[in-house]
Specification:
46% of the residues lie in helices and 18% in strands. It has 18 helices and 27 strands.
């Protein structure tokens, strides 16, 4: 079989390996356990990238949080003796903040039932909401049975207006029951939205649901409702799995019809103002606090760990729920949502990377170089995935390309090295090695000359050729016998190998002539190597078959590709002429130029 056919067969085998790997991955991908495994690792990789990317995200300074933090909780328990706090406090807080003309006051808190024991406080809170049209309240949805809680009928004014499109019945979107805002509040305002959050299987929140379906109608997420009002948008469209506010603001949905959030940092991304400081300022008629609320979106919510509204997100294991909702609003205002690439795209990327790495393994003899290439490829792809997330908000999958590329790499090496028989290796060695000197033979020399010239023509990699002839070798054989001549040939061959690099090719050219192809070597370096070899032979004592020690010298001719020719035969002829001049001028010397 010709070398061309062998090469073609090799590529066919490796192509079948690639096809086999992806067929196996496609088949295994149908199993839920494998899908969950891949999804879990991919989600963790997303978290790592977000932790890096979030450092370069700038949070919106117009969003501030009035926090019921641990200190506030202690203050409330000390001053009021109970939690939840009287709604009179919330009424006073709204009135206090409104002095600064904020854009919005958004309560990440549920006001579900009237307080029959404190109707006066309820009335004060209701009056405060009625007085201002920029106060937003929360509700949420669940799937409790009507046997537990009768599902309420929500007012038409709370429904989200959808101009075009609709959502399918995703478990993240569709719900059977609701915890509605107390009727006295819903009667006077339509600034109400849901604060539902959904965790992934590992307990981390990476997505949020912008629109909820309840009793056949659609209702907005609280932050979506706030954003629509800030953007002066009355209705939205759902086209090609994307929520469209207007020509500028759009929100891509993932396959679950949720949005993937970009994170602006870890805890306390936004300015936190403890509620107790506001209550204290009110009691002491200190209005200086109000300045920090001017023209701001003010979220009000709990951050105290004892009040249990703590979430785990990619950038923080203990994030307050109110920060999550503020982050969602920030994403909307910045058009900053993550877009996940399709499985098809990730398969194409995986195939491309696998073919590139597999080709490298086929073309490179060095195991170290191929391992380095694999690592560089994986690191480069990881860096590209971070860049895409940072600059374009694109989440490109890492796990599938990594698994497929590493699998191809391992299997290719198994095919290339482990499955080849020792007989093939031995046959090849015999085919290219001179039996006496254990140097490469003349056939290999000619092939390597062609390859070296080809590399020079394609990449500009210079090489030099040294031709060596043992002086008076025929006379030596006549004097000491052919067995002693063979001993000298072997010992000269060893000297040549010891004084050459691993990347050089030391060959037996024929009879007493030997040759060295010096890779990546220009003429000056080649001359130095030739002189070193000539001196090493001259200073060596050669042991003959009878144990006698004699001196031997060599004549050397040197040529370099580009300087002395660009074809194999031209380079060989120039070295041969130099070798002839060395002999004519007394032998035992190196010649590199022809007059």
């Amino acid at each position: 079989m010709s070398e061309k056919c062998k090469k073609l067969l090799t590529y066919i085998v490796y192509t079948l390996i690639v096809v086999g790997i992806f067929t196996l991955l496609f088949w295994v991908g149908n199993f839920n356990s494998f899908q969950n495994f891949i999804s879990k690792i991919e989600a963790s990789s997303f978290d790592l990238r977000q932790q890096f990317v979030s450092k370069y995200k700038i949070a919106n300074n117009d969003i501030v949080i009035v926090a019921i933090d641990d200190a506030t909780y202690e203050y409330i328990m000390d001053k009021y003796g109970a939690w939840p706090i009287s709604r009179q406090v919330w009424a006073d807080t709204v009135n206090y903040i409104e002095k600064a003309n904020p854009k919005n006051i958004v309560f990440d808190m549920l006001f579900i039932k009237a307080n029959l024991n404190d109707k006066k406080s309820d009335s004060a809170f209701i009056e405060a909401i009625k007085k201002y049209d920029n106060v937003y309240l929360s509700m949420n949805f669940d799937n409790y049975s009507d046997k537990i809680r009768t599902s309420p009928v929500l007012e038409d004014k709370l429904k989200l207006k959808i101009k075009d499109g609709s959502l399918f019945d995703s478990p993240y979107v569709t719900f059977l029951n609701a915890r509605a805002v107390m009727k006295e509040i819903s009667d006077i305002t339509d600034n109400i939205g849901s604060i539902n959050v959904t965790r992934d299987a590992d307990g981390v929140i990476r997505n949020t649901t912008p629109i909820f379906k309840y009793k056949g109608d659609y209702y907005p997420n609280l932050s979506l409702k706030v954003a629509m009002d800030l953007l002066n948008v009355d209705e939205i469209s759902i086209i090609n799995n994307e929520i469209i506010f207007n020509d500028e603001y759009k929100m891509p949905l993932d396959v679950t019809q949720r949005v993937i959030l970009n994170w602006y940092g870890a805890g306390k991304t936004y300015k936190h103002i403890p509620l107790w400081e506001i209550i204290y300022a009110q009691k002491h008629d200190d209005n200086s606090f109000t300045e920090m609320f001017a023209n701001k979106v003010v979220y009000v919510g709990t951050t105290a760990t004892s009040l249990s509204d703590i979430k785990s997100v990619p950038t923080e294991s203990n994030l307050a729920g109110v920060e999550l909702h503020a982050n969602f609003l920030n994403n909307i205002l910045d058009n900053n949502f993550i877009k996940r690439t399709s499985t098809k795209t990730e398969f194409i990327i995986s195939i491309f990377m696998s073919l590139v790495v597999g080709y490298c393994v086929l073309q490179t003899a060095s195991v170290f170089k191929t391992i380095v290439f694999l690592l560089v490829t994986l690191i480069f792809y990881g860096a590209v995935s971070i860049f895409l997330m940072l600059q374009y908000n694109i989440w490109v999958g890492i796990v599938l390309p990594y698994i497929s590329t590493i699998s191809i790499f391992i299997l290719t090496y198994c095919e290339k090295y482990l499955l080849k028989s020792k007989d093939y290796e031995q046959t090849y060695k015999l085919a290219v090695t001179d039996g006496l000197t254990q140097l490469y033979n003349h056939r290999f020399f000619q092939e390597q000359m062609i390859n070296s010239v080809s590399n020079f023509m394609r990449y500009g990699n210079k090489f030099s050729l040294i031709l060596i002839d043992i002086d008076f070798f025929k006379k030596f054989n006549d004097t000491y016998g052919h067995q002693s001549g063979d001993c000298v040939l072997k010992q000269v061959a060893n000297i040549l190998k010891k004084n050459s690099r691993n990347s050089d090719f030391v060959c037996r050219y024929g009879g007493e002539e030997m040759a060295i192809i010096l890779t990546n070597t220009a003429k000056p370096e080649a001359i130095i190597t030739a002189e070193k070899i000539c001196n090493a032979v001259r200073n060596n004592k050669f042991i003959l078959a009878n144990g006698e020690k004699v001196n031997v010298t060599i004549s050397v001719g040197v040529s370099t590709v580009g300087d002395n020719g660009e074809k194999p035969q031209e380079i060989i002829e120039f070295s041969d002429k130099c070798l002839y001049i060395a002999k004519e001028n007394g032998r035992n010397q190196v010649v590199s130029e022809v007059n």
